[in-house]
Amino acid sequence: MTTKTTKLSVFAFLGLGLVAYGQYNGKVGINTPYPNATLEIQISDANKSGSTKEGILIPNVTAARAKAMGEGVAESTLVYITDGTGEANTTISNVSGKGFYYYDATDKKWQKVVGNSNGVTLNTITGNIREVTSITPEEWAKPNTFALVQTSGDQIKLPDPSSYTNKIISVNNQ
Predict the structure, then answer these.
(1) Among 84, 113, 136, 161, which residue's CB has the most CB atoms within a 10 Å radius?
(2) Closest among 53, 97, 98, 60 to 78, alpha carbons compared
(3) Each residue of 134-143: pLDDT tens digit?
(4) Nearest-angstrom CA–CA distance, 163 and 153
(5) What backbone phi and psi angles, to 5 degrees, belong to 111?
(6) Source organism's superkingdom (predicted)?
């Protein structure tokens, strides 16, 4: 009985010593002897000259699953939404199909990561917004905000500005 207790005590002491050493140094790394505070994934030496496919696989979820996560998601959480579209007044109201989305904890919404400038992305504008193709005096007089989408090479014509004070026009040429 004494031998078992002695052996158990020695293993417990060694185990505790290793845990204390690991906590003191506080460094954990994968495939690197000098880990940093930021994440860096390095290709192993065996794969550097090979034809293996390397990369990070971001979690794939549906829009319904992203909605089910609720509003308690950590700021900047990244997911790849595989299918589905947004629903008004929910965390997925800005979802417009498959793609990478990050969680904006301030707005409590999933925001699409836009990677090109081949058009205007209206789903990132907030507020009560209507998409219009031209601005008529009737449209200009409405109290809500609108986004003008010009799809042709024509000029943009605006109504007389003296009749519509306190309006802000923002033009984004993409």
Answers:
(1) 84
(2) 60
(3) 666 666 666 6
(4) 27
(5) -110, 135
(6) Bacteria
